[in-house]
Amino acid sequence: MSKIGVIGGGKVRISGLSATYRFARYCPKHHIRLYESSRSTGGWINTIKTTSGGLFETGPHSVRVATNLQSSAYALSLMTELGLEDDVIFRTAKDPAARFRFAMFDGEVTRLPYSLPSALLFNKLSIAEKLQMGLGLFKKQNHKRDVSLYDLIKETFGQKPADYFIDSMTRGIYATSSKNLTVPNTLAAVEKYFMTGIPAVNILKAIGSIDYTFPAKPFLEPYDPHLLNTAKSTKAKVWSLKNGLQDMIMKMTEVVQNADNSKIYLGTSAKLIRKHGSKLRIADSNGSEEIYDQIFASGNPKTLSCLLHPDDFPNELIELLAGFESTQVYVTLVELKNMVLPKSPGFGFLVPSCENPDILGVIYDSCNMPEHDGRGARYTIMSTRPHNELPNLVTDALGAIVEEVQVAWTHQIKGSNFKNVR
Ligand SMILES: Cc1cc2nc3c(=O)[nH]c(=O)nc-3n(C[C@H](O)[C@H](O)[C@H](O)COP(=O)(O)OP(=O)(O)OC[C@H]3O[C@@H](n4cnc5c(N)ncnc54)[C@H](O)[C@@H]3O)c2cc1C
């Protein structure tokens, strides 16, 4: 019998709450304790309902299927296990939400090329710029490890691809400009190729051939492949739940709360982790201390680095964890009164820094999950500064796609994304 401490009750694919849930459900001989600083489990997952009956996700909007990734396969198996199989909503490769992405070009929301012919017809690049991009594929890549992603792309493919394709993409994924990121931060699996003098086209091939094969025999039991098989046969790209992602949090929390071997300490932060002979000791924000055989920690690595006592843990480990930098992203949820989604259906649009340094992008929630609509079109605006510092945020973000912005409901939360600085 062993005692296990888990720090942080968040979850997207596999994290603190799902680890606790697994122990509670399948390992009755282990005692498990989950420390969660906030008053509820779920981490960034939180679904809220508007007065018109619409649903918004304040954190993750959907979960990627990526049928060859183990964590995605287990997340789908978990939905079956929790009795939520009939509530899973898939978005497939055919849906506009999966096919079309947009970016702001000269104040206009423009569909990004999604195939070679559409790239050749793309009217925001001149013939000379397209030629420069094509020739860039054969340019030998010999860069310093700390060159910024922006400079690397600009040098290889030209200024416009760096400004519009790469910068908008990193702002969408990492909530920061490509000028602040390097190849090791973003493409760690292929970073060595950027220093060996091979042409860019060979690196693209290497990226395409990264193998994440799902093992023939699942490493966790029970594993139910039914939803994954449905996802594969329908070419599903992402999924959510009929009543929002919060449902899976509630179901898992219920199992943990009803199990004899597990306890959730809500509103309780882990403050310090120390070695205790061959075991580990957690001191918490209520002044209590407990001894564990093992500890699982989820969430921000930088936070974890502050919990490890420097006398008991190697300095290299503490420094490595402290090196994960974070950046703030503000999320504003907007529902437009009695409106259906206007022109340009697709996932949403990204905004490069050269177009607007404050707005990162807009997600067309009504296109991605129409099942969550109430009486109005729903949008999520991501920004680098809060709503109250950007008085025209909603009109600046939505003005390019909606003629008259009549805001029926807005709600703002602060989120954070992490970039790995090594
Ligand atoms: C705005 C936004 C949108 C996103 N959209 C998507 C998306 O669409 N799809 C997707 O897959 N991912 C998305 N992500 C990323 C996703 O939210 C994270 O990858 C995920 O939340 C990480 O889960 P986690 O459990 O590791 O951490 P978290 O969800 O951050 O949970 C960590 C938990 O630990 C608790 N905690 C922290 N310190 C302590 C402590 N000392 N003691 C006790 N408890 C502590 C926190 O309160 C929190 O509940 C998004 C992120 C943001 C911010």
TrEMBL record:
Stored Gene3D superfamilies: FAD/NAD(P)-binding domain
Predominant location: mitochondrion
Pathway(s) it belongs to: Porphyrin-containing compound metabolism; protoporphyrin-IX biosynthesis; protoporphyrin-IX from protoporphyrinogen-IX: step 1/1
Residues in the signal sequence: none
Compartments it resides in: Mitochondrion inner membrane
Similarity remark: Belongs to the protoporphyrinogen/coproporphyrinogen oxidase family. Protoporphyrinogen oxidase subfamily.
This protein's name: Protoporphyrinogen oxidase
